[in-house]
Write a structure and sequence with these properties.
globular; seven-stranded mixed β-sheet; mainly beta; 3 helices; nine-stranded mixed β-sheet
Length: 316
């Protein structure tokens, strides 16, 4: 049972320290957050098509709206905010999501090659129970729904950032499918209250989000917030995530290519294991080489993101 509710019309398009909070909560509170889809609710049929990402920004003012911000009482800069995704309902209003092809957006296209641009298109993906039905020329293909928040984060210390973008200081649009139900995302606050916002839910996505869009949808998300004082923080440089079985680091910087993103995740995890889990640096380095797993969120120029995680059973 949620202690508070934020409706999906309470969205904004920036992680911004000057954005007034929509709600104030206490550590330990649960919040039911309604999120809008990546195109601000403008896509409801196959006929609504955007010709470019520039057109999306021109018409809508941005992309990946986030609901919030949420002010957590008692949070000071340097404290850690642990946000647990307890439940998600994708497509609660329309019972559907959508995916798109947008010229020059995606991992296999760009603005600086000689190929002809793809024809833009929108594909509505209906939901039935735990299955999303992706229509194809061969008939619909049923895909298991596995919802997660594609964009989440908190206010940076100074200059606001578009919610479409990403960075280690505010997190942002990382589209990592392993950050779903049961996952706790740990972020370091930059401003009093943290000012947390979330949105851009995906009903499902493959690694890399290679065409530039997952199954985008509205969602209803139940989140629980806890606070770890900075003096107790076990934090290096990157946002973290935890599940019952694993711990990991989240890397996504915008404009930094995937190899360096993955390396950054490994560096963060090496430092975490050596600083907080009793390993020497060489032991941590070797152990991660042998047992870590990488999940790729985006290969969507200029957005690249990944997690590096390791099973808790190897840390004892």
């Amino acid at each position: 049972m949620a202690d508070h509710t934020l409706t999906r019309d309470q969205y904004h398009l920036f992680f911004d320290p000057a954005e007034p909070p929509k709600i104030e909560i206490e550590p330990g509170d649960r919040v039911l957050v309604e999120t809008e889809d990546a195109h601000l609710g403008t896509i409801r049929d196959n006929d609504t098509v955007y010709a470019s990402l520039a057109e999306v920004f021109e018409v809508l003012g941005g992309a990946n709206p986030v609901t919030g911000p949420i002010y957590i009482n008692g949070v000071e800069p340097g404290d850690l905010i642990a946000m647990t995704v307890e439940d998600m309902t994708p497509g609660p209003v329309q019972g559907q999501g959508y995916t798109v092809l947008t010229p020059s957006l995606g991992g296999l296209v760009s603005d600086y090659t000689l190929q002809e641009p793809l024809t833009p298109r929108t594909v509505i993906v209906p939901f039935e129970g735990d299955t999303a039905y992706f229509p194809t020329s061969k008939g619909p293909i049923g895909l298991p729904i596995a919802p997660f928040l594609g964009t989440m984060g908190l206010a940076p210390s100074a200059e606001r950032r578009y919610s479409y973008f990403q960075g280690a200081d505010f997190l942002g649009n990382v589209d990592l499918p392993n950050l779903g139900i049961g996952c706790t995302i740990v972020m370091r606050a930059n401003v009093p209250g943290g000012l947390v916002s979330v949105g851009d839910a995906h009903a499902l996505q493959g690694d890399g989000e290679i065409s530039g869009a997952a199954v985008e949808c509205q969602s209803d998300v139940t989140l629980r917030f806890e606070v770890i004082p900075k003096e107790d923080a076990q934090y290096v440089a990157l946002p973290q995530f935890e599940t019952e079985d694993t711990i990991g680091s989240i890397a996504g910087f915008g404009g930094v290519h995937l190899g360096d993103v993955v390396r950054a995740g490994y560096v963060d995890m090496t430092k975490r294991l050596s600083t907080f889990h009793g390993f020497t640096v060489p032991d941590a380095y070797n152990l991660l080489c042998l047992a870590a797993r990488v999940t790729v969120g985006q290969v969507v120029d200029p957005l690249y993101s990944a997690t590096v995680e390791i099973d808790r059973k190897f840390l004892v």
